[in-house]
Amino acid sequence: MNFTSASQQILQFKIFPALFIHSNDDGWFELDAYAISLNTVLQLGSEEDHLSISTVVCSANVGSVQVNFHGGASFIYQLFVDIFSNRITDEIHAKICPAFQQGIKGLESHLAVMPVAIKMGSYVYMNVTLTESPLIKSTGLELNVKGEFYSITSPSEPPFFPKYFNVPWREDYMMSLGASEFCVNSAAYAFQSAGVLQMLITDDMIPKASPIHLNTSQFGILIPQLPKKYPDMPMQVQLYASETPLVSFNETVTNVHLLASAKAFAMGPDSAAIPLFRLDVESSISAKAFTDKQLLKGVLEMKNFTMTLGSTEIGDFPIGPIEGMMKFAVTSLVIPKVNALLKDGIMVPFVTGFNISNSVMTIENGFVAIAADISVPEDSWQ
Question: Is the pTM for the entire model greater than 0.90?
Answer without folding.
Answer: no
